[in-house]
Amino acid sequence: MGLNPGITDWQGRRVWLIGASSGIGRAVADALHARGAQVCVSARQRAALEDFERSHPGSRALALDVTDRSATLAAAQHLLAEGPLDLVCYCAGHYRPMRADALDLDEMLRHQQVNQTGALHVLAAVVPALLEAARQGRAPHLSLVASVAGWRGLPQSLAYGPTKAALISLAETLFLDLRPRGVGVSVVNPGFVDTPLTAQNRFRMPALITPDQAAAAMLRGWQRGDFEMHFPRRFTGMLKAMRLLPYRWYFALVHRMTGL
User: Fold this and answer.
1) Rounded CA gap, 164 and 115, in Å?
2) N or C: which end of the chain has fewer CB within 10 A?
């Protein structure tokens, strides 16, 4: 039994996916629309969103830059004026490989603005409405897409990893605060998924999966009521175990495995 109420029937559920123009977010939007959900997709890429809307009858496209606080609030208010939201999933992400000998402060701050501050903008805009929906007997759910890069420090992840670690901590605290009040909370920690973000990597990505496979894993997790979803397990299970190692052993093993 999961820590959240399981979501087994998506028919008619109102879903807002932020960061859904490509990659995992787009695949989740495809999957939920196919299961009868009323899907609204948001991202900065208006053309990609409109393409989704045309090919998915009944869906909505709402262009949004999550780093814009007032625009995020206005978008949420627009959707909530039409009715309560059953799932809000924050999939927006920014990634550039970075090491400390090539530190780029502007890029680091961009990671923070999209991956972390954007999530806070969405939370501020939707959490009161999710709590109200829970008081009215609904079972709304909030999901944050983080990454295994947030579990422990990794090479090439100087800018990306800390923002994902912040999302994991944020989700844990949200669960403690919101789950007793009727709002489900989950965090998604993917391994390597074949997306425009990971296409920048110049190293072999072990256990690389497709966005559709990632979306299927997320839907299974929501169905079970999981708090955390991590996949593919053949890769993330190993990283989970490595989290338990003392620093001396962990750092040596990472250097040995990556050559960095």
Assistant:
1) 7
2) N
Q: State pLDDT tens for residues 77-123.
A: 999 999 999 999 999 999 999 999 999 999 999 999 999 999 999 99
User: pLDDT tens-digit profile of 71-83?
Assistant: 999 999 999 999 9
Beta strands in the chain (DSSP E): 14-18, 38-42, 60-61, 87-90, 141-145, 184-190, 228-231
CATH code at 62?
Answer: 3.40.50.720
Cα 184 from Cα 87, distance rounded (Å) = 9
Question: Residue 7 falls within a domain, yes or no?
Answer: no
Q: What is the 3-state secondary structure (H, E, C) of the chain?
A: CCCCCCCCCCCCCEEEEECCCCHHHHHHHHHHHHCCCEEEEECCCHHHHHHHHHHCCCCEECCCCCCCHHHHHHHHHHHHCCCCCCEEEECCCCCCCECHHHCCHHHHHHHHHHHHHHHHHHHHHHHHHHHHHHHCCCCCEEEEECCHHHCCCCCCECCHHHHHHHHHHHHHHHHHHHHHHCCEEEEEEECCECCCCHHHCCCCCCCCECHHHHHHHHHHHHHHCCCEEEECHHHHHHHHHHCCCCHHHHHHHHHHHHCC
Assess if residue 215 is contained within a domain: yes
> What one-character DSSP code corresponds to residue 115?
I
Look at residue 9 and tell me if it is in a domain: no
Regarding pTM above 0.90, the answer is yes
Q: Domain residues for 178?
A: 14-258
pLDDT digits (tens, 9 = 90+) for 207-223: 889 999 999 999 999 99
**Tally of structural domains, the chain:** 1
